[in-house]
Design brief:
two-stranded antiparallel sheet, 319 residues
Length: 319
Protein backbone atom coordinates (compact mmCIF):
# COMPACT_ATOMS: atom_id res chain seq x y z
CA UNK A 1 0.00 0.00 0.00
CA UNK A 2 1.31 3.47 -0.90
CA UNK A 3 2.14 6.11 1.68
CA UNK A 4 -0.89 8.20 0.73
CA UNK A 5 -3.07 5.13 0.23
CA UNK A 6 -3.38 4.16 3.89
CA UNK A 7 -4.09 7.76 4.81
CA UNK A 8 -6.97 7.94 2.37
CA UNK A 9 -8.27 4.64 3.74
CA UNK A 10 -8.13 6.12 7.23
CA UNK A 11 -10.13 9.18 6.14
CA UNK A 12 -12.67 6.93 4.42
CA UNK A 13 -12.98 4.91 7.63
CA UNK A 14 -13.69 8.11 9.59
CA UNK A 15 -16.11 9.15 6.87
CA UNK A 16 -17.98 5.86 7.25
CA UNK A 17 -18.02 6.37 11.02
CA UNK A 18 -19.60 9.80 10.55
CA UNK A 19 -22.36 8.27 8.46
CA UNK A 20 -22.93 5.23 10.68
CA UNK A 21 -23.07 7.33 13.84
CA UNK A 22 -25.66 9.61 12.32
CA UNK A 23 -23.24 12.56 12.42
CA UNK A 24 -23.81 12.99 16.17
CA UNK A 25 -20.16 14.06 16.70
CA UNK A 26 -20.06 16.58 13.85
CA UNK A 27 -20.93 19.67 15.89
CA UNK A 28 -18.47 18.70 18.61
CA UNK A 29 -15.54 18.45 16.21
CA UNK A 30 -16.64 21.54 14.27
CA UNK A 31 -16.42 23.39 17.58
CA UNK A 32 -13.13 21.81 18.62
CA UNK A 33 -11.47 22.64 15.30
CA UNK A 34 -12.15 26.36 15.88
CA UNK A 35 -9.53 26.31 18.63
CA UNK A 36 -6.98 26.03 15.81
CA UNK A 37 -8.49 28.81 13.68
CA UNK A 38 -7.29 32.37 14.00
CA UNK A 39 -10.21 33.89 15.94
CA UNK A 40 -10.03 32.02 19.27
CA UNK A 41 -6.20 31.90 19.49
CA UNK A 42 -6.03 35.61 18.56
CA UNK A 43 -8.51 36.55 21.29
CA UNK A 44 -6.77 34.38 23.85
CA UNK A 45 -3.22 35.61 23.20
CA UNK A 46 -4.35 39.23 22.96
CA UNK A 47 -6.17 38.97 26.29
CA UNK A 48 -3.10 37.45 27.95
CA UNK A 49 -0.92 40.22 26.54
CA UNK A 50 -3.31 43.12 27.27
CA UNK A 51 -4.76 42.04 30.58
CA UNK A 52 -2.64 39.50 32.42
CA UNK A 53 1.06 38.82 31.73
CA UNK A 54 3.01 40.60 29.00
CA UNK A 55 5.94 38.17 28.97
CA UNK A 56 3.61 35.17 28.62
CA UNK A 57 1.60 37.01 25.96
CA UNK A 58 4.73 37.76 23.93
CA UNK A 59 5.79 34.11 24.03
CA UNK A 60 2.37 32.93 22.84
CA UNK A 61 2.13 35.63 20.15
CA UNK A 62 5.66 35.00 18.86
CA UNK A 63 5.12 31.24 18.80
CA UNK A 64 1.87 31.67 16.90
CA UNK A 65 3.34 34.09 14.36
CA UNK A 66 6.41 31.96 13.68
CA UNK A 67 4.11 28.96 13.23
CA UNK A 68 1.94 31.15 11.00
CA UNK A 69 4.69 32.11 8.55
CA UNK A 70 6.46 28.73 8.68
CA UNK A 71 3.21 27.00 7.79
CA UNK A 72 2.73 29.34 4.82
CA UNK A 73 6.24 28.60 3.57
CA UNK A 74 5.79 24.83 3.87
CA UNK A 75 2.33 24.86 2.26
CA UNK A 76 3.45 26.84 -0.77
CA UNK A 77 6.63 24.77 -1.12
CA UNK A 78 5.01 21.33 -0.93
CA UNK A 79 1.85 22.29 -2.88
CA UNK A 80 0.05 19.14 -1.77
CA UNK A 81 -3.62 19.04 -2.67
CA UNK A 82 -6.47 18.56 -0.23
CA UNK A 83 -7.67 14.96 0.38
CA UNK A 84 -10.79 15.29 -1.78
CA UNK A 85 -8.62 16.37 -4.72
CA UNK A 86 -6.21 13.48 -4.15
CA UNK A 87 -9.12 11.02 -4.03
CA UNK A 88 -12.68 11.87 -5.04
CA UNK A 89 -14.06 9.27 -2.61
CA UNK A 90 -13.17 11.57 0.27
CA UNK A 91 -16.14 13.82 1.02
CA UNK A 92 -15.40 16.38 3.77
CA UNK A 93 -18.10 17.68 6.04
CA UNK A 94 -19.70 20.59 4.21
CA UNK A 95 -19.44 22.99 7.17
CA UNK A 96 -15.66 22.49 7.26
CA UNK A 97 -15.08 23.75 3.72
CA UNK A 98 -14.95 27.53 4.44
CA UNK A 99 -11.92 27.15 6.75
CA UNK A 100 -10.17 24.59 4.52
CA UNK A 101 -8.48 26.95 2.08
CA UNK A 102 -5.11 26.74 0.38
CA UNK A 103 -2.96 23.67 0.09
CA UNK A 104 -3.23 20.79 2.53
CA UNK A 105 0.27 20.12 3.89
CA UNK A 106 0.96 20.88 6.68
CA UNK A 107 -2.20 21.62 8.66
CA UNK A 108 -2.67 25.29 9.52
CA UNK A 109 -5.23 24.51 12.22
CA UNK A 110 -2.78 22.15 13.91
CA UNK A 111 -0.11 24.85 13.72
CA UNK A 112 -2.47 27.38 15.29
CA UNK A 113 -3.49 24.98 18.06
CA UNK A 114 0.03 23.75 18.75
CA UNK A 115 1.63 27.19 18.94
CA UNK A 116 -1.20 28.74 21.00
CA UNK A 117 -2.06 25.98 23.44
CA UNK A 118 1.40 24.40 23.31
CA UNK A 119 3.05 27.66 24.37
CA UNK A 120 0.41 28.03 27.09
CA UNK A 121 1.28 24.53 28.33
CA UNK A 122 4.96 25.50 28.44
CA UNK A 123 4.18 28.61 30.50
CA UNK A 124 2.02 26.65 32.96
CA UNK A 125 4.01 23.43 32.83
CA UNK A 126 3.95 22.99 36.60
CA UNK A 127 0.16 23.10 36.63
CA UNK A 128 -0.82 19.62 35.51
CA UNK A 129 -4.44 20.58 34.81
CA UNK A 130 -3.47 23.34 32.38
CA UNK A 131 -0.65 21.26 30.90
CA UNK A 132 -2.75 18.19 30.18
CA UNK A 133 -5.77 20.28 29.24
CA UNK A 134 -3.78 22.10 26.56
CA UNK A 135 -2.19 18.88 25.32
CA UNK A 136 -5.62 17.24 25.10
CA UNK A 137 -7.02 20.20 23.19
CA UNK A 138 -4.16 20.06 20.67
CA UNK A 139 -4.74 16.35 20.05
CA UNK A 140 -8.48 16.94 19.63
CA UNK A 141 -7.87 19.70 17.06
CA UNK A 142 -5.49 17.40 15.18
CA UNK A 143 -8.02 14.57 15.12
CA UNK A 144 -10.83 16.96 14.16
CA UNK A 145 -9.03 17.84 10.92
CA UNK A 146 -9.01 14.14 9.96
CA UNK A 147 -12.56 13.52 11.20
CA UNK A 148 -13.86 16.45 9.12
CA UNK A 149 -12.04 15.07 6.07
CA UNK A 150 -9.97 18.18 5.31
CA UNK A 151 -6.49 16.89 6.20
CA UNK A 152 -4.56 13.64 5.99
CA UNK A 153 -2.68 12.24 9.02
CA UNK A 154 0.66 13.40 7.59
CA UNK A 155 -0.67 16.98 7.45
CA UNK A 156 -1.38 17.12 11.17
CA UNK A 157 1.56 15.02 12.37
CA UNK A 158 4.19 17.03 10.49
CA UNK A 159 2.59 20.31 11.58
CA UNK A 160 2.70 19.14 15.20
CA UNK A 161 6.41 18.25 14.91
CA UNK A 162 7.37 21.51 13.19
CA UNK A 163 5.54 23.61 15.79
CA UNK A 164 7.03 21.67 18.67
CA UNK A 165 10.43 22.75 17.32
CA UNK A 166 9.14 26.33 16.95
CA UNK A 167 8.09 26.45 20.62
CA UNK A 168 11.64 25.52 21.62
CA UNK A 169 13.28 27.98 19.22
CA UNK A 170 11.06 30.93 20.14
CA UNK A 171 11.76 30.41 23.84
CA UNK A 172 15.50 30.44 23.20
CA UNK A 173 15.30 33.44 20.86
CA UNK A 174 13.37 35.53 23.39
CA UNK A 175 15.84 34.58 26.12
CA UNK A 176 18.75 35.57 23.86
CA UNK A 177 17.09 38.91 23.02
CA UNK A 178 16.55 39.80 26.68
CA UNK A 179 20.21 39.24 27.58
CA UNK A 180 21.84 41.89 25.40
CA UNK A 181 21.54 45.50 24.30
CA UNK A 182 19.98 46.24 20.89
CA UNK A 183 19.36 42.58 20.18
CA UNK A 184 15.74 43.53 19.53
CA UNK A 185 16.93 45.56 16.53
CA UNK A 186 18.92 42.61 15.24
CA UNK A 187 15.85 40.40 15.57
CA UNK A 188 13.52 42.84 13.84
CA UNK A 189 16.01 43.16 10.98
CA UNK A 190 16.14 39.38 10.53
CA UNK A 191 12.35 39.07 10.80
CA UNK A 192 11.82 41.85 8.24
CA UNK A 193 14.16 40.14 5.77
CA UNK A 194 12.46 36.77 6.31
CA UNK A 195 9.02 38.24 5.70
CA UNK A 196 10.03 40.17 2.58
CA UNK A 197 11.73 37.11 1.10
CA UNK A 198 8.73 34.93 1.97
CA UNK A 199 6.31 37.37 0.32
CA UNK A 200 8.43 37.42 -2.83
CA UNK A 201 8.79 33.63 -2.76
CA UNK A 202 5.06 32.94 -2.47
CA UNK A 203 4.18 35.37 -5.25
CA UNK A 204 6.98 34.63 -7.71
CA UNK A 205 7.39 30.85 -7.47
CA UNK A 206 5.71 28.48 -9.90
CA UNK A 207 2.76 26.34 -8.84
CA UNK A 208 1.35 23.09 -10.23
CA UNK A 209 -1.40 23.73 -12.76
CA UNK A 210 -3.08 20.35 -13.09
CA UNK A 211 -6.28 19.93 -15.07
CA UNK A 212 -8.90 17.17 -15.07
CA UNK A 213 -11.53 17.28 -17.80
CA UNK A 214 -10.53 20.83 -18.59
CA UNK A 215 -10.95 21.97 -14.97
CA UNK A 216 -8.04 23.38 -12.95
CA UNK A 217 -7.71 21.28 -9.79
CA UNK A 218 -6.47 24.13 -7.64
CA UNK A 219 -6.08 27.85 -8.36
CA UNK A 220 -3.01 29.27 -6.56
CA UNK A 221 -3.99 32.92 -7.08
CA UNK A 222 -5.92 33.22 -3.77
CA UNK A 223 -2.86 31.80 -1.99
CA UNK A 224 -0.74 34.63 -3.40
CA UNK A 225 -3.30 37.27 -2.45
CA UNK A 226 -3.73 35.85 1.06
CA UNK A 227 0.03 36.04 1.61
CA UNK A 228 -0.19 39.86 1.73
CA UNK A 229 -2.64 39.68 4.65
CA UNK A 230 -0.53 37.09 6.46
CA UNK A 231 2.77 38.91 6.02
CA UNK A 232 1.10 42.22 6.89
CA UNK A 233 -0.12 40.73 10.17
CA UNK A 234 3.29 39.33 11.03
CA UNK A 235 5.09 42.60 10.25
CA UNK A 236 2.58 44.61 12.27
CA UNK A 237 2.86 42.26 15.24
CA UNK A 238 6.66 42.29 15.33
CA UNK A 239 7.11 46.02 14.68
CA UNK A 240 4.48 46.73 17.33
CA UNK A 241 6.43 44.55 19.76
CA UNK A 242 9.60 46.58 19.09
CA UNK A 243 7.86 49.94 19.47
CA UNK A 244 6.08 48.92 22.66
CA UNK A 245 9.29 47.56 24.16
CA UNK A 246 11.29 50.70 23.42
CA UNK A 247 8.77 53.48 23.96
CA UNK A 248 5.73 52.30 25.93
CA UNK A 249 6.57 49.45 28.31
CA UNK A 250 2.98 49.13 29.51
CA UNK A 251 1.95 46.88 32.39
CA UNK A 252 -1.09 44.63 31.68
CA UNK A 253 -1.72 44.37 35.45
CA UNK A 254 -2.90 47.98 35.51
CA UNK A 255 -6.56 48.31 36.45
CA UNK A 256 -8.95 46.05 38.35
CA UNK A 257 -10.65 42.90 37.06
CA UNK A 258 -13.62 44.80 35.62
CA UNK A 259 -11.29 47.18 33.79
CA UNK A 260 -9.42 44.22 32.30
CA UNK A 261 -12.61 42.54 31.09
CA UNK A 262 -13.82 45.76 29.47
CA UNK A 263 -10.34 46.32 28.06
CA UNK A 264 -10.37 42.90 26.44
CA UNK A 265 -13.87 43.31 24.97
CA UNK A 266 -13.10 46.75 23.52
CA UNK A 267 -9.86 45.46 21.99
CA UNK A 268 -11.62 42.49 20.39
CA UNK A 269 -14.30 44.73 18.90
CA UNK A 270 -11.73 47.08 17.37
CA UNK A 271 -9.76 44.17 15.88
CA UNK A 272 -13.00 42.72 14.45
CA UNK A 273 -13.93 46.05 12.87
CA UNK A 274 -10.49 46.41 11.32
CA UNK A 275 -10.63 42.88 9.92
CA UNK A 276 -14.01 43.51 8.27
CA UNK A 277 -14.66 47.19 7.58
CA UNK A 278 -10.99 48.14 7.43
CA UNK A 279 -10.22 45.51 4.83
CA UNK A 280 -12.94 46.83 2.54
CA UNK A 281 -11.82 50.44 2.93
CA UNK A 282 -8.13 49.80 2.30
CA UNK A 283 -8.79 47.44 -0.61
CA UNK A 284 -11.11 49.97 -2.28
CA UNK A 285 -8.60 52.80 -1.94
CA UNK A 286 -5.23 51.21 -2.66
CA UNK A 287 -5.98 47.87 -4.34
CA UNK A 288 -6.47 44.32 -3.17
CA UNK A 289 -2.96 43.17 -2.29
CA UNK A 290 -1.65 46.45 -0.90
CA UNK A 291 -4.96 46.99 0.91
CA UNK A 292 -4.80 43.61 2.60
CA UNK A 293 -1.20 44.17 3.63
CA UNK A 294 -1.89 47.61 5.12
CA UNK A 295 -5.11 46.56 6.88
CA UNK A 296 -3.57 43.53 8.56
CA UNK A 297 -0.35 45.41 9.33
CA UNK A 298 -2.49 47.92 11.24
CA UNK A 299 -4.28 45.06 13.04
CA UNK A 300 -0.94 43.56 14.11
CA UNK A 301 0.36 46.97 15.16
CA UNK A 302 -2.84 47.60 17.11
CA UNK A 303 -2.49 44.37 19.08
CA UNK A 304 1.10 44.83 20.20
CA UNK A 305 1.58 48.63 20.20
CA UNK A 306 -1.41 50.93 19.65
CA UNK A 307 -3.76 49.31 22.15
CA UNK A 308 -1.11 48.81 24.84
CA UNK A 309 -0.32 52.53 24.47
CA UNK A 310 -4.02 53.37 24.85
CA UNK A 311 -4.19 51.11 27.93
CA UNK A 312 -1.27 52.91 29.54
CA UNK A 313 -2.78 56.32 28.80
CA UNK A 314 -6.17 55.32 30.18
CA UNK A 315 -4.79 53.71 33.34
CA UNK A 316 -1.93 56.12 34.01
CA UNK A 317 1.52 55.07 35.17
CA UNK A 318 0.28 53.44 38.36
CA UNK A 319 -1.20 49.97 38.63
Amino acid sequence: MSWIGWQIDYLLLLQSFRDLSGHIFDNFFLTVTRFGEIAIPAMFMSFVYWCWNKKAGIYIIWSYMFGFITNMFLKTTACIYRPWILDSRVVPLEQAFPAATGYSFPSGHTAGAMTTWGSTAVIFWKNKYVRYGCMGLILLVMFSRNYLGVHTPQDVIVSFGVCLFILFIVKRVLEWESEGKNRDLVLIGIITLINILLLLYVNLKSYPMDYVNGQLLFNPCPVKTDSFARIGTAMGIFYGWLLEKRFINFDPKMGNYLHKIIRGIVGFVVVYLFSTLGETVFVNYIGEKAGLFVDYFVIGLFITFIYPYAIKLSCGNNK
